[in-house]
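Justification of resources, computational component.

The compute hours requested in this renewal are based largely on the per-chain cost of generating structure records like the one below. Each record pairs the submitted sequence with a full structure-token output. That output is archived, and it is also reused by downstream analysis tasks.
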Amino acid sequence: MTPSTESDAVLLAHMADCLARISDYTGGIRQRFDASSLVQDAVVRNLQMLTESSQRLSDAVKSTEPGQPWRELSGFRNIVVHAYLSLDLSIVWSIIENDLPGLRDAVQRMIAQSTSDGPPA
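The structure output for this chain reads:
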């Protein structure tokens, strides 16, 4: 494995972990998210880490999933980090509900691809 491949594997695993945590925290239930500032804070923090990791992925790995909105993820990271006082929780929920399932699938495909790219047995 090259250093880039190794770091991509670590970043993809971290992204998968963030996605799993968000799912665990919300249970896919809007009311659970809306009712708890603790859940909201945990979700936003994991979105921040998820989007930060997505920015650090190599272009080669990102190119395997051209349908993913990599630039928009980066933009959302900037909002979460720099404009957190104006963060709209309705938009956060929309992202959880509409965007994260596809990203979760893409991350799983990228992980599968990276593990199948190892040296021949």
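The CA atoms of residues 30 and 93 lie 7 Å apart. The first helix runs from residue 3 to 26.
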